[in-house]
Write a structure and sequence with these properties.
There is one protein chain. The protein is mostly helical. Helix 1 runs parallel beside helix 4 and helix 2 crosses helix 3. It has a domain of about 60 residues.
């Protein structure tokens, strides 16, 4: 029998392996873009952390005194600043990752990568429109949007 050539010394097989590896890597990143919301960087979630609105809501729901409101307002303002900074940091990370990925792709792969991001954006917008029309039901709790409570803590 002839000895097996595992391709470790063959330059042509190495370049083929790296091409396959890059192809697999591209597929993995594309799959992650679709599986993990926001990784594409196209997600324009407008997180509006409004301390005034939150304070009014808490005052109404909890019956806060003026003294409590004075103490709680700076806490809510600090929370809003920190969350806004985190959102910006996440956006920067997504943009940096996308640029690094694109630097490893061929022009054809970049075009496909951008096309996949565009399709994802279209699906997300269609989903958003659908949910805006149907906000009654799943998204409502006691006549109020369930997600209103998400930022009250």
């Amino acid at each position: 029998m002839l000895p097996r050539n595992h391709g470790f010394n063959s330059k042509s097989q190495n370049s083929g392996s790296s091409t396959k590896f890059m192809g697999v890597l591209t597929l993995v990143f594309c799959a992650l873009m679709f599986a993990v919301p926001g990784w594409s960087g196209e997600g324009k979630h407008h997180h509006k952390h409004n301390p005034e609105k939150q304070l009014k809501k808490l005052t109404k729901r909890l019956g806060l005194t003026e003294a409590q409101q004075v103490k709680i307002k700076p806490i809510l303002e600090q929370k809003a600043q920190q969350l806004n900074a985190l959102h910006q940091q996440m956006k920067d990370v997504r943009q940096n990752s996308r640029a690094q990925i694109e630097s490893e792709l061929t022009p054809e792969q970049i075009a496909t990568f951008k096309e996949l991001r565009e399709k994802r954006k279209e699906r997300r917008e269609a989903h958003k429109e659908k949910n805006e029309k149907g906000k009654k039901g799943k998204h409502k709790k006691d006549g109020q949007d369930k997600h209103d409570d998400d930022h009250d803590d």
